[in-house]
Description:
Blueprint: E1 2-6, E2 9-12, E3 17-24, E4 32-38, E5 45-50, E6 57-59, E7 67-72, E8 77-82, E9 91-98, E10 111-112, E11 116-121
Parallel strand pairs: 2-11
Antiparallel strand pairs: 1-3, 3-8, 4-5, 4-9, 5-6, 7-8, 9-10, 9-11
Amino acid sequence: xxLQASGGGLVQAGGSLRLSCAASGRTLRTYTMGxxxxxxxxxxxxxxxxxxxxxxxxxxxxxxxxxxxSRDNAENTVxxxxxxxxxxxxxxxxxxAARGLAGRVFEEYEYWGQGTLVTVSS
Length: 122
């Protein structure tokens, strides 16, 4: 599976961005999909995950109620809708895929996109 993340950019605090993760090579339908983010000098941080069945979603407390993960099976993409953005959301965002069960731990994911930079200005 090859993942390509896109949609990052510069936005003012309170604004919105929509990140996409497009897959090639395999359908994402049965994969657990996750988004992580990382800032310089810090470990990669869990943001959200969506189970392969689509029945379960998980969010970090810091983004709950503001971010939404969803899957577009027709386009073989996973979308992260980010609303009410804050300066502390500034990071490089990575999408990831796991063939089996996965959650908040980045070692559980086998496939990673290249990252897309999100910058939120105050």
